[in-house]
Amino acid sequence: MSTAPADDFDPTASSLSGKVADEVMAELLAMRSSIDNIDATLVYLLAERFKATQRVGHLKAEHHLPPADPGREVAQIARLRRLAEDANLDPAFAEKFLNFIISEVIRHHQAISETRNGGSSAEGA
Ligand SMILES: O=C(O)C(=O)C[C@]1(C(=O)O)C=C[C@@H](O)C=C1
């Protein structure tokens, strides 16, 4: 059985090794352990989101619907900006992040549509 790439991960890898006091390094590594857990969660969350959007992509292609839904995006962005404000996260960052994800989703939708229908949709993208 092959080893999962994540097993090669060295949580202590750092360009700072040997350059900072041991106790500072220990504190940094403790903080990084939380960061590593959060990053792993983000990967799983994003994988789940893309699983859901892949189903949307197939539904849209099947019914010849355009890959993008700008009206939905306006509502999503306004909501995420509000949530970000409540969470003390920069709303501009939340918007940029969502737009980044959505543009990738739209690319996937277009690819699904091209594979299934040769790219034609009733209303264009
Ligand atoms: O909900 C949809 O219609 C989707 O295709 C999903 C999604 C998203 O990633 O949230 C992607 C593209 C659309 O423009 C709007 C939303």
TrEMBL record:
SUPFAM superfamilies: Chorismate mutase II
Enzyme class: isomerase
Enzyme Commission numbers on file: 5.4.99.5
GO MF annotations in UniProt: chorismate mutase activity
InterPro entries in the cross-refs: Chorismate_II_sf, Chorismate_mutase-related, CM_bact, CM_dom_sf, CM_II_prokaryot
Domain of life: Bacteria
SMART domains: CM_2
Domain Chorismate mutase: from-to ranges: 22-113
Matching Gene3D superfamilies: Chorismate mutase
PROSITE patterns assigned: CHORISMATE_MUT_2
Assigned keywords, A-Z: Isomerase
Protein name: Chorismate mutase
Organism: Arthrobacter koreensis
